[in-house]
Specification:
single chain, alpha+beta, six-stranded antiparallel β-barrel, six-stranded antiparallel barrel, 18 helices
Length: 675
C-alpha cells in the first residue's frame, strides 16, 4: 500500500466539504425558504462566509443590489444582507478595477460554517494548485460548482492572481473562494474569466482586504474598524470551534493537522497552536496602527530591507511577516520566537485598553507552552520580557470616574404583571414610578387583558410614566415584576408605542421576581449562603464577578441549589445553555430561590458553540466593575441587535434579573390611583 500523501484526494475528502458548507449565492434581497413565497431571484454571483454573519464577495457582485441590500442564499433558504464595504464603492459599466471586493453583513443571524483565511496574505503567489467554489445556473437551475487549476502568476500592479484554464469557469462563480489545495486555506476570491471561456480566470488575493479604509479618528472599540471587526471575529470563531468539545465535528484545524509538516510556515507553529494563538490575539485590541505593528516586528527582528506591497494591519499577518524573516531551523528557537511575538502583542500599546483577562490569557498560554516545550533559559527570557513590558506599559485601565457616575441610581418605572388566579391567560397590571421620597402610583389595569394585547394597552400609561421619570441622557429603567413562571417574558421586545423600536433598545429593561420563595434551609451541617441584601450590596461595590453555573467549556452542568447558595456574595449566576426542556424555568426557580438578586440568562440559543456567548458575558460584566452598570450594558447589547451588529448577536434574548431586595414590591392588595 502506498502511504504517500495525495494532496488532491485529501483536499476532496477533508477540505472540500468545509468550503462548500461556507459558500453562498448572492442575489436580490430576499428572505425565506423555497417552499415559502416567490421563487428565489436570479443569481448574481457567489460569496463565502469569512466570520459569523459576514460574507466576502466581489464588489461587482454585491453592487448589483439597490440601496445597499442583497440576498445571501444558503442551503435551504436566504437572508438579507447589507453591503458594509465595497471597493470600488460604486458599480460602473464594464470591468471593475482592483480590488473589486465587498463585505456583506447579515441583517439577522443564522448558524453557518466559515472558511479559514490564509494569514500568508503578503506573499507573491505562483504555482499553487487551487480549487475554486461557487454557484452557477445551468438550464434554469442554480447549483453548486467547483473546479481545479493552477496559479500561473500575477497580473497587473495590484497582484491579481492569473489562473490557468485547466477547468471550466462558468458565469456565477465570481466572488467564490480560491483555496490552496496543498495548504487547505483560502488565499483569494475568484474575480472571473480573463477573456474567453478557454482563457482561465483572475483571482483577487486576500491581501487586498487591507484596502479597507483606516478610520480617520481614534478607535475606541473593535467595531470602529471594519477590518479588525471581521478578521478578529474570524479568528475567534475558528478558535471556538477547535476548543468546543460539546460534539464531534470536523474543522479546518483538524483537517490542516493531517497535512504534511512541509505545509507549515514554521514547524513549531502547528495548526492547533496557530488557531489558539490567533484566537487569543483576536481577543486583544488591534495594533495601534500599521506603523506601530511594523515597528513591533522590527523590534523583534530587525528589517532586512524588504518592502511590503501591502503592509500588515492586524496581529495575524504581523505574525506571518515576522515568521517570514526567521531563518531558524531549531524547533525550540522557532517556538520561542512565536511566543515572543505573543508577548509583544499582548503588552503593546493599543488604541484602547486591553481587558486584563485577554492579556492574561495570552501569557497563560505562553507560560504553559514554554514550561512543557522550552529549556529553562528560554523560559526565563520569556518571563523576564513579559514582566518588564507589563511594567513599562502599565497594562490596565481605570474607570473610577465612570463608576462614580454609574453609582447614581437611574430613575425607574415599575410594571407589575399578574396572571389572574381565576382566569388563566388573563392579566392585570400596575405601574409605579420610583421617587427618592417614595414610589408614586401611576396607573393600573384590572381588565383581565390577554398577554398579546398588553403592549398596546400599556403604550399610553407607560408613555406617561416615562415622561414623568426620564432625565436628559438618563432614560428610566423599566422594571418588570413577574411571577417565576413568566420571568422569560420578552417584554424588552415590545414596541411601545406601536411602530417604535423595541423598548429594550431604547431604555434599560430588567425583570424582578414577584413571588420569590423563601430560601430553603441548607443541608444539615452546611453553612447558610449570603443573604440577598448582602449579595446586592457586594455586587454594587468594587469587584463584581459572574459564574456560569450550567456550562463548563461547552459541557452542560446541573444547576443545583447548593452550588448556587455556595457562590460568594460578589458573584452572580449566569445561564448559558437556555432554553432547556422546560424553557429553563427550573434553573431560574433555583436561582431566585437561592437568594440571588442579580442573574443573566438568554431566552434563545442560536449557536451550538458557546464561546462567543461566554466572551460576550465577560465583556459585559467587565464594562463596569459594579452591578450599577449592568442594566445600561444590557440595553446597549439590545441596541446592537437592533442595529444588526454581528458582535451583539450572541446576546439575542438576553434577560437581566435585577431585583433590589431593599426595595420590596408593593403588595398585591395595594390600591393604586391615577393622579
Amino acid at each position: 500500500m502506498n502511504g504517500a500523501h495525495d494532496p488532491d484526494a485529501y483536499f476532496s475528502r477533508r477540505f472540500a466539504p468545509l468550503v462548500k458548507a461556507a459558500t453562498v449565492r448572492i442575489h436580490a434581497a430576499h428572505d425565506g425558504y423555497p417552499h415559502e413565497g416567490p421563487p428565489e431571484p436570479s443569481l448574481w454571483g457567489s460569496g463565502f462566509f469569512v466570520a459569523p454573519n459576514w460574507v466576502l464577495t466581489c464588489a461587482h457582485v454585491a453592487l448589483e443590489g439597490e440601496g445597499g441590500e442583497v440576498g445571501v442564499g444558503f442551503e435551504g433558504g436566504s437572508v438579507r444582507g447589507r453591503v458594509e464595504w465595497a471597493e470600488p464603492a460604486a458599480r460602473t459599466d464594464g470591468w471593475l478595477p482592483a480590488p473589486d471586493l465587498a463585505l456583506i453583513r447579515l441583517l439577522r443571524p443564522i448558524t453557518h460554517a466559515c472558511c479559514w483565511l490564509s494569514p500568508r496574505t503578503g506573499r507573491a503567489h505562483g504555482g499553487e494548485r487551487v480549487a475554486y467554489f461557487g454557484y452557477t445556473e445551468i438550464a434554469g437551475t442554480v447549483g453548486a460548482f467547483d473546479g481545479r487549476c493552477r496559479v500561473r502568476g500575477e497580473f497587473g500592479d495590484q497582484g491579481l492572481l492569473r489562473l490557468g484554464n485547466e477547468d471550466e469557469m462558468p458565469e456565477g462563480l465570481s466572488g467564490g473562494p480560491l483555496v490552496d489545495v496543498e495548504r487547505g486555506e483560502v488565499i483569494g476570491v475568484l474575480k472571473g474569466r480573463r477573456g474567453g471561456a478557454r482563457d482561465g480566470g483572475l483571482g483577487i488575493p486576500l491581501a487586498q482586504l487591507r484596502r479597507i479604509g483606516v478610520p480617520g479618528v481614534r478607535i475606541g472599540r473593535e467595531e470602529d474598524d471594519p477590518y479588525h471587526r471581521v478578521l478578529h471575529a474570524h479568528d475567534r470563531h475558528h478558535a471556538d470551534l477547535h476548543a468546543d468539545v460539546s460534539e464531534a465535528r470536523d474543522t479546518w484545524t483538524e483537517a490542516q493537522s493531517g497535512l504534511p509538516a512541509a505545509a507549515a510556515t514554521v514547524a513549531a507553529l502547528t495548526p492547533k497552536r496557530r488557531v489558539v494563538l490567533h484566537g487569543l490575539l483576536a481577543q486583544l485590541p488591534p495594533p495601534a496602527g500599521t506603523p506601530a505593528l511594523v515597528a513591533l516586528v522590527d523590534e523583534l527582528l530587525p528589517r532586512r530591507g524588504e518592502e511590503l506591497r501591502l503592509a500588515p494591519r492586524g496581529w495575524r499577518e504581523g505574525l506571518e511577516v515576522y515568521l517570514d524573516r526567521l531563518e531558524l531551523r531549531d524547533i525550540h528557537s522557532e517556538l520561542e520566537a512565536v511566543l515572543r511575538y505573543a508577548v509583544y502583542a499582548a503588552t503593546a500599546e493599543h488604541p484602547y485598553p486591553a481587558a486584563a483577562e485577554a492579556a492574561d490569557a495570552v501569557w497563560d498560554w505562553v507560560r504553559d507552552l514554554a514550561m512543557t516545550e522550552l529549556p529553562p533559559l528560554a523560559r526565563s527570557r520569556l518571563g523576564a520580557e513579559w514582566h518588564a513590558r507589563v511594567r513599562a506599559r502599565a497594562i490596565g485601565r481605570s474607570r473610577r470616574a465612570e463608576e462614580a457616575a454609574a453609582a447614581v441610581p437611574l430613575p425607574s418605572v415599575l410594571l407589575e404583571i399578574t396572571e389572574r388566579a381565576w382566569e388563566q391567560g388573563r392579566f392585570d397590571w400596575y405601574i409605579t414610578a420610583s421617587r427618592p421620597t417614595g414610589d408614586l402610583p401611576l396607573g393600573e389595569g384590572r381588565h383581565g387583558t390577554a398577554l398579546a394585547d398588553l403592549p398596546a394597552e400599556l403604550a399610553g400609561p407607560l408613555g406617561e410614566a416615562f415622561r414623568r421619570s426620564d432625565e436628559p441622557g438618563r432614560p428610566a429603567v423599566l422594571e418588570v415584576a413577574l411571577r417565576q413562571a413568566l420571568l422569560d417574558l420578552a417584554v424588552d421586545t415590545w414596541r411601545i408605542p406601536p411602530g417604535s423600536p423595541p423598548i429594550g433598545e431604547l431604555r434599560p429593561v430588567v425583570v424582578r421576581c414577584a413571588d420569590r420563595p423563601a430560601e430553603p434551609p441548607p443541608e444539615e451541617g452546611a453553612a447558610p449562603g449570603p443573604a440577598p441584601q448582602e449579595r446586592w450590596a457586594r455586587l454594587h461595590e468594587d469587584g463584581m464577578e459572574h459564574a456560569c453555573v450550567d456550562c463548563d467549556e461547552g459541557r452542560p452542568e446541573d444547576v443545583t441549589a447548593d452550588a448556587l447558595r455556595d457562590l460568594e456574595a460578589r458573584f452572580f449566576p449566569v445561564l448559558c445553555r437556555m432554553p432547556g426542556g422546560d424553557g429553563g424555568r427550573e434553573a431560574i426557580r433555583r436561582i431566585v430561590g437561592s437568594g440571588h438578586p442579580v442573574a443573566l440568562w438568554r431566552r434563545e440559543r442560536t449557536d451550538p458553540v458557546c464561546g462567543e456567548y461566554h466572551r460576550g458575558i465577560l465583556r459585559t460584566v467587565k464594562s463596569g466593575t459594579t452591578a450599577h452598570r449592568l442594566p445600561a450594558a444590557v440595553r446597549e447589547l439590545r441596541a446592537g441587535i437592533g442595529a444588526a451588529e454581528p458582535e451583539a448577536y450572541w446576546s439575542r434574548g438576553i434577560t437581566l434579573l435585577y431585583d433590589d431586595p431593599g426595595r420590596p414590591l408593593p403588595g398585591d392588595d395595594d390600591v393604586l390611583e391615577t393622579p
